[in-house]
Structure formats: structure tokens, C-alpha cells
Amino acid sequence: MSEYRIHGATGEWEVVIGLEVHAQVVSEAKLFSGAATAFGAEPNTQVALVDAAFPGMLPVPNEECLRQAVRTGMAINAEINAWSRFDRKNYFYADLPQGYQISQLYHPIVGEGAIEVDLEGGATKTIGIEHIHIEQDAGKLMHDQHPNFSYVDLNRTGVALMEIVSRPDMRSPEEAGAYVRKLRSILRYVGSCDGNMEQGSMRADVNVSVRKPGDKFGTRTETKNVNSVRFIMAVIEHEARRQVDLIEDGGAVVQETRLYDPDRGETRSLRSKEDAHDYRYFPDPDLLPVELSDAFLEECRASLPELPDAKRRRYEEALGLSTYNASVLTAEVETARWFEALLASPGKPDAQRAANWVTSELFGALNRLGRGIEESPVTPAQGGELLGLIADGTLSGTLAKQVFEIMLETGEDPGAIVEARGLKQTSDTGAIEAVIAEVFANNPNQLEQYRAGKEALFGFFVGQTMKAMQGKANPAVVNELLKKALG
Ligand code: ADP
Ligand code: MG
Known about the structure:
By secondary structure, this protein is an alpha+beta fold. It contains 15 helices and 16 strands. It has three domains: about 5-300, no CATH class; about 305-420, no CATH class; about 430-485, Arc Repressor Mutant, subunit A (Orthogonal Bundle), CATH 1.10.10. About 40% of the residues lie in helices and about 20% in strands. The protein starts with 5 loop residues before the first strand and ends with a helix. Adenosine-5'-diphosphate binds near residues 165, 207, 218, 220 and 222.
């Protein structure tokens, strides 16, 4: 693969990227309170006294949030820290009434790990993870509800976040995009984050610097809260270009926090970057250190599902699927679930045929309908029944496509559709022979030409016979009978 480079007046530049991904933890309750976490509730209906920072309220850690972070760490082969601690990060923010965020600076719950990222052309690259720590999310300020006032919604205040910090290991927008997609896939398999970037449950701080290849790292900027893969890639491209131009014009990059404006496709400075010491971090005196027992860790490990890399390998090696099919079918957990339900359906369809059918017919239909596989109008059991009807010769390829279209429209079972509409394929040699005789009688010229040696007309007779039988004749039988009749 060719390396990604920015071309400047002074030659080629390399881009260095590190991502801090904030992933909202899937849990019923918040990190330190019993308030609900459901998305889209009426503003300020999911706020406990501790979230609103009433005097004397004390945080109580939610074990489920810790479990989710540990499971996520295990899924990226990270070191799990059986001893971790919460720290206060002090700052004023109108949507965080405490006046500090409870986070983990010195002793995060998950240490070093790695993610294998899939690049164009089957290449892979390992991206290091520095650590994952748990922290509280802030609420939401709304500036567009009233001409003179800003409003605050505290529903999100105190919801658990995992901050997944990568090493500065990425070197192009494509690698960063592939990293976020893979991370999202793993989180969704684990069930620790729903990965919904539009709703903000996953967002990234994008750190970018540039250097001449071989030099030491340059000064980075950090663009905050970027909430789609496309925007992350756009930020990197824009920021790298801006930094190269700046340096080549004799300027210097300042370490700062920037914001992305998707409408203009550019970043702008928000504030100069603070350092950890600016926040006066200290261990939260309201919370004891977290100690994880061996039994808890064992339970976390046992609860992990088969993960995308392992599943893809199994699809290739045990099921004999192509690399393409195996990776498409395992990229999203819902797709893998649907495909495995299809394989387990009563007819036990052949894995390779099933994979081809899902990636071509089913995906094509879902694309047209603009639906995800979890909203498929056809169930795995119905798909299995359809594949069974193809395998036993009841349906030709053409008929199967017709039946599938009707299934999509009506939701009916394929067997019932075949019965009710007489769409069965026929191998009845008597019926086919009668039609062939008819075709010959209607096309005397072509018959004469064929007999005079124009063998290319064979296909013409196949087509005429199939057409006369409305696509219901078994093509293999038609071929065989035609050969006999013409030979
Ligand atoms: P902070 O929490 O203050 O933003 P960290 O040291 O935790 O700082 O680093 C944040 C992110 O910045 C990490 O993802 C890391 O990979 C990335 N990073 C560090 N140095 C560079 C650099 N020179 N260029 C690009 N990214 C970098
Ligand atoms: Mg940061």
C-alpha cells in the first residue's frame, strides 16, 4: 500500500494521528446514581439528587459500568487493572453541577491493549491502545430554545463513558476511519456501547500533527467531539493541510483545542490546550479505590461473545467462506447473528450458498429498502426455506428471485407462495418436450439454419422454451431435451 503524504512546498509530510474515543456505556443506570440513561427522554426527567450535586449526596459506583469497561478491555486484549481509582477533574461547566468530573487519571481500570485494523486490499495494521478509563458524561446546554436564555438538560449528566485512548499510531485518514469502524464493531459485539454516532454515544477527539518522514513527532492539535467517521477523516485531512501550510509559511503549530465545523468543512481554534495540572486532579475522597476480584474478572471473561476477528477466521476456515464474504458477514454483529440463525434454520442450508445469497440477494434488497438487517422483512427461517427450495430443485434461480420479491412485499413463507401461485419449477419431461415441439413449429427458419450448421442458435431455442414455460422449466432438463431433439 502506498503511504499517505501531504505534498508541501518543501517536500512531503507525514501525518500522525491519535484518537480519544468517548463511548457511552450501555447500562440501565448512571455511573454513580440510580437515574435512568434512556436516550431521548424529556429534558431533566432522568436526574438523581447526586447528578444535580445536592449537598451531602454521595456517589455509589455502578458495578455494571465497571463490568462493561473490563469486558471491553478484555475484548481488545488489554491489561486489566484489578486495582484502579477515581480522580476529580476540576472545572466549571454549566451542565456539570458538581463543578468537577469524576474520571480516572492516574490509575485507569484498563491498561495497554491493541486493535487489529483492516485496510484496503486485505492489509491489516495493529493500532496500540494506551488505556481505557471510566468517567462521567456532562449534560447538554441548549442555546437555540429561547432568544434570551440558554437551557440545560441534565439527563446525560453522570452517564458512564469509557474513554478509549489510542497511541499515535495512525498515519492516514483511511487508517483512522478503519480504526473507528473496527472499534465500533468490537464495542457492539461486546454490547458495552451501542456505537450510535448520530446520537452521540460514540464521539472522538482527533489529535493530529505533521512531520517530515523520519523526524520526531510534531506539536499536535486536538479537535473535540467529532461524531462521524466521515467527519473524523475530513478533520484529519483539513488539519494536516493547515499545519503544513502554517509551518511552511514560517509559523508554528500551537498545542490547542479546536472545533470542527461540518458546514464549512474546517476546524477553528476553541482554546489553548490545558495540561493535566490545570485541572488540579486529586483522588476523589468520596470513593474508595476499585478492587476487582478474580471471580469478577472470570465472570467478565466468560460473558464475552465470539469477537469479529475470531468469527471471521472461523467463517473462512470452518465454513469455507471467501475472505470477502467472511469479512462482510462479521463486520456488524446483527449481520453475523442473522447469518448464524439462517445456518441454524430447519433446512440447514449450505454455508457457502447461504453466504452468497445473503451478500447478494438479501443485501441488495435491504439496500433498496433502506433498511438494516435487523429490520429485514424476511426472517432467517424464511431465508432458509427459500434456499431449501432452490437446493431441492423446486425453484430455479429465476423463480427464486420472483419468490423472494413476493416474500419481501408480503412477508409470506416461500413454500406457501410457491403453492398459491404455482411457481414450482418443472422437470416434467413430457410437458417440456411438448413445448419444444411447439417452439420448433413456430420457428421453422431458425430450425433450418441450426440444422444447416448454425449451432449458435441453440441458446435461442433454450430461451424460447423457457419463455414459453414462464421460467418454470428446469434449465438443465430443457438443455438435455433440446440437445436430444436437435441432435
Ligand atoms: P490529553 O489527554 O491531554 O489530550 P494524552 O497524552 O492522553 O493527552 O494524548 C491524547 C491523544 O493524543 C492520544 O490519543 C495520543 O495518541 C495522541 N497524541 C499524542 N501525541 C501526538 C502527536 N504528536 N500527534 C498526534 N497525536 C498525538
Ligand atoms: Mg484529550
